[in-house]
Known about the structure:
Blueprint: E1 4-6, H1 17-23, E2 29-33, E3 36-39, H2 40-54, E4 61-66, H3 70-81, E5 85-88, H4 95-102, E6 106-111, E7 114-119, E8 136-141, E9 151-155, H5 156-170, E10 177-179, H6 187-198, E11 202-205, H7 213-222, E12 226-229, H8 231-240, E13 252-255, H9 262-273, E14 278-283, E15 293-295, H10 297-302, E16 309-310, E17 314-319, E18 346-352, E19 358-360, E20 374-384, E21 389-395, E22 399-400, E23 407-408, H11 409-419, E24 429-432, E25 437-440, H12 446-457, E26 464-466, H13 482-495, H14 507-519, H15 537-551, H16 563-566, E27 578-580, H17 581-597, H18 606-622, H19 628-657, H20 662-665, H21 669-672, H22 685-701, H23 704-712, H24 716-727, H25 745-760, H26 764-777, H27 785-800, E28 803-805, H28 808-836, H29 841-868
Parallel strand pairs: 2-11, 4-5, 4-6, 10-11, 12-13, 13-14, 25-26
Antiparallel strand pairs: 1-17, 2-3, 6-7, 8-9, 9-19, 14-15, 15-16, 17-18, 18-20, 20-21, 22-23, 24-25, 27-28
Helix pairs in contact: 2-3, 5-6, 11-12, 14-15, 15-28, 17-18, 17-28, 18-22, 18-25, 19-22, 19-28, 22-25, 24-25, 25-26, 26-27, 28-29
Amino acid sequence: MSIIENHGTPLVAPARFVDVIRSHPDHAPALIAGDRAVSYGELADRIRHRIGELALSERSMVVLSGTNSAEFVVTYLALLDAGHVPLLAARGAPAAQLTAVWSPAATVHVDGDDLEITHRMADDDAGLGPSLHPDLALLLSTSGSTGSPKLVRLSQRNLVSNAASIVAYLQLTAGDRGITTLPLHYCYGLSVLHSHLLAGASVVLTDASVVDPCFRRALADHGVTNVAGVPHTYHMLDQSGADALEVPSLRLLTQAGGRMAPEDVARWVDRSAGRGVDFYVMYGQTEATARMAYLPPDLAAHRPGTIGRAIPGGTLRLEPVAEVGSDDDGRDADGGRCGVEPGEVGELVYSGDNVMMGYATEPADLSRGHDLTELRTGDLARFHTDDEVYEIVGRRARFVKPFGLRIDLDELERRLVDRLAGTDGDIVAVAGDDSIIAVAAPSAEDAAVVDAVTDLTGLPASRVVVDRRPAVSRLASGKVDYAALLDAATEQAGSGDDTTKDEHVDTSTRIRRIYAVVLGRHDVSADDTFVSLGGDSLSYVECSIRLEQVLGDVPADWHLTPICELATVQHRRRWLPRVDTTLVLRALAICLIVGTHMRVWFFPGGAHLLLAVVGYNLARFVAPIESTRERVVAGLRTAARAAVPAMLWAGAGVLLFGAYSLGTVALVNNYVGPASHADDHWHFWFIEVFVHLVLLTTLLLAIPVVRRTERRWPYVFPLGLLGVTLVLRMEWAWMDDWYNIRYRTHAIAWFFVLGWLVRQSTTLPQRLLTTALCLTVVPGFFQYAPREWFIAGALVVLLWVREVPVPRPLVQPIALLAAASLWIYITHFTFWPLLTDVFVREVAYVLTIVSGVAVWAAVRVAATRWRSGRAVAPAVT
């Protein structure tokens, strides 16, 4: 048997992809963006309208980039429908370089609902771009970086046939609903869009990471049935809690974009089956439009290390492969192919209607026709005759020969996972050439990595370079960026420079360092977000300050944006930047609190406003975390960041000055302390309430039925909780102490819940109702109107204005006061009596604030040095 084949059945599909859209019922939903659905009828209309907006008179090549939005999809489909050829570029791709290399007629960038079209002016002796072959429909990058000169040329036939195959083996119907887990410029992400639109199904458009609470909410709110992911996607879900995918509507999970460890495949197949969900492993390349093989769940349980069978309409076979570095091309003496017997390894070759037209390395290639009838994948595989499935065992390009030693980098990578005990297998990467082996294993010691590689390969230690960056570099697709790993290792080996220095690392790495230092995490990856790493309101300010030094003006949703996306966006510095309203309120409140206590003025209410902001931020940073364990840890961390400093400061007061009491140190004085609020034992009542409510809320949301209720009704839940807590401020709960009831946890918990409700008010009716509640429940509580209307008014501002425009010179002072507000509150009771004995009250007030900021800064420096001593990367300043 000379050639092993797996024949597919030809499929019948429409000739043009956009024609399919017009064949579906007009009323059926096609796209869902936010709370708005776009029907197939509306989509067809918008495509026609967009063709006119593009204003391209002749068939042209156009560079298209943007977010996963309805406007991006409409623009992409309009280009296809009009016969233009889109070159899909990654966000942040160098537009000038693409224009210089490929001479497009126009570049189009879509950012949400905003469309930016830049037409290129024709030269006097040239047309509007290169000549295009009649069959050419789409250009995609092979590497994930469209600055590369090598592009894949795809035809309409490629797009439609591959989408039809995917529809067939996944059994997609009009009732299915997918979601964008990957960027649309990546062939896997694009195939999700293509296959669902071909089937008459719908797609939810989002840029949120799978571990983002917004993603989980989108799954539930829109009844998503299908979720696609690369290995790193499922690794993140394993880390953050796979229950993020537990929605009743889900029926299908797919995995492609790289090899997933067999044990991980088996675990996900078993886990999915237990929930009535099918888990499909898929194999493909951009050169085959997207998919070439699939492994259904029944086979995945038995053969988790294989890629399965050829897709409908496609054929797979194995052909001999020459030894790396050999002149032998695998032909026998008569010029024919040598045989590949069952069980032997050969190069995997695919044929089908989805095989690309060919590569393009220069504009002249765009006029070429079909160069290929089959695709030599470069992957080495064997065929299992019992189940008729293929198993990838390596890649030709992943074999290197340093010092004449033939090394399979994929096999080395797999064996290092086993060798480096306790190392996370998904974050071990190996690259190399004929001179060095580069290894990235952030959770392993450098010496252990070098010893393991030298032992497994026989190479001298001098030829092993350990990547010192805090996380493995990844492409936008989630795949390991082996080229970047090798480049960094080559530079490190050649210069001896420390690649952790700022001048030698990219923006993504600098952001990861910031998160590592501020949050005390050593496991920060490019796909993490501030929230997924357990960030809270106390670390939010410092992170935002540091990020601004790296990025300029940071976006409003930076805390929910994956690091890899945050690093690609170029933000300009405006004179009137927008500052998060909670930061302004924290800075204002702490200034009012200190001034009122010192009698510089009398403007009470700041502490109760801060309590509402605490509830707002808990709903923003802690409550959305899907993993119960991670959410509880985040809640405990938030409580500790307030409790520990206050307890230490109060304890020092007891020991050194005889101030305070053990009830104050234990943060229970508001229930066991003396009745007189004028006594210094009550100084930390706000910290006590802060800690009590954060702990109680964390425990409450750890109860599964409560958590499900809160996730299902994110606005109704805090609304009902507000009703419960308002009862606790009534006369029966006063404990015969009306004055101090305003400082006890049970009676003022409603401020905290009201802040929570403000955060969850996302629709106009919800905001109107919450506004009415703020203006109704606050007045009358203190029997001092200025205090009440200040708190109510500030909450209404927070409800309607999430960011406040502030002159740039004021940004840093506001951020500094907000960041140091906890320490200013804790220390000002100690500092201001001492300072007023020396200075006039106004000067003492300023010095009291400055003293609190100084203590905060000293604590931060000490904490950073301590973390650095535990091998966490240094801060970026």
